[in-house]
Specification:
With 239 residues, the chain is of the alpha/beta class. It has one domain: Alpha-Beta Complex (Spore Coat Polysaccharide Biosynthesis Protein SpsA, Chain A). The protein is 26% helix and 23% strand. It is built from 6 helices and 11 strands. The strands form 3 sheets. Strands 5-4-1-6-10-7-11 form a 7-stranded mixed β-sheet, with helices on both faces. Strands 2-3 form a two-stranded antiparallel ribbon. Helix 2 crosses helix 4. The model has no long low-confidence stretch (mean pLDDT 95). Bound molecules: cytidine-5'-triphosphate and magnesium ion (MG).
């Protein structure tokens, strides 16, 4: 890859060790069929094909048998599976960062991306890299909250309307320097961490929000598959 000397690498790390319980199917959602291929192939192919991404690690559940059966021919030697998934997403990310340690320098960028976000585009990656080019810490793709927000009580009655100004929905990739991210996760209460940025925030650093696309949503429930298929057809021209 066209690596300038002393330029930081861009390494993707894809947590894919979840069970997809909210999807309610026997196979984990990352292997659900989507637009003619297993869901996980979409984001992994997009990251592997991106010229600025040097290596792609995928964190899998120990004993995963489905990954090896997917079509990784377009990924070449950029792709590296790591069978070290943990109990939670954050544990999978942390285990993956430790397992990939020898291939990453402290100053390199790590882009953590959910396998369950298949509609990531090369343009999303370009925007993130461009916005964080001069950052010491890093940041994440996110979209401003568009709906009016309500805070409710346990009975589902509205108590309050919450001002949505300056509220964003965090997406992935979340991109941080390797040393910043691994230190933040080491110090964080891993059970309470739902994204990389929240661990980095706890160190006092301020990750930058980079405008993402609403199409880059996380497939969580069965009905999300049809929506993801439409997005892939429209924006990627894929089958
Ligand atoms: N993930 C992981 N290790 C875990 C849990 C989740 O690597 N122990 C991954 C998932 O495979 C997914 C991403 O983190 O790509 C986002 O997590 P989520 O959407 O919550 O997926 P699941 O945990 O699999 O789904 P659910 O919460 O419905 O069980
Ligand atoms: Mg989960």
């Amino acid at each position: 890859m066209d690596q300038m000397p002393n330029q930081p690498k861009h390494v993707a790390l894809i947590p894919a060790a979840g069970s997809g319980s909210r999807m309610g199917s026997a196979t984990p959602k990352q292997y659900a069929p989507l637009a003619g291929r297993p869901l996980i192939e979409h984001a992994v192919h997009t990251l592997c094909r991106h010229p600025r991404i040097d290596q792609v690690f995928v964190v899998l559940a120990p004993g995963d048998r489905d990954f090896a059966a997917c079509d990784w021919r377009c990924c070449g030697d950029k792709l590296m599976p790591l069978y070290c998934g943990g109990e939670t997403r954050a544990a999978s990310v942390f285990n993956g960062l430790l397992a990939a340690n020898d291939a990453i320098d402290g100053n390199d960028w790590v882009l953590v991306h959910d396998a369950a976000r298949p509609c990531l585009t090369a343009a999303d990656i370009d925007r993130l890299l461009a916005a964080l080019k001069d950052s010491e810490v890093g940041g994440l793709l996110a979209v401003p909250v568009a709906d009016t927000l309500k805070r409710a009580n346990a009975e589902g009655e509205v108590l309050q309307t919450v001002a949505r100004e300056q509220l964003w929905r965090a997406q992935t990739p979340q991109m941080f320097r390797y040393r910043v991210l691994i230190e933040a996760l080491r110090r964080a209460d891993i059970a309470a961490v739902t994204d990389e940025a929240s661990a980095v925030e706890q160190t006092g650093a301020r990750p930058l929000l980079v405008g993402g696309s609403t199409g880059n949503f996380k497939v969580t429930y069965p009905e999300d598959l049809a929506l993801a298929e439409l997005v892939l057809q429209q924006f990627h021209g894929k089958r």
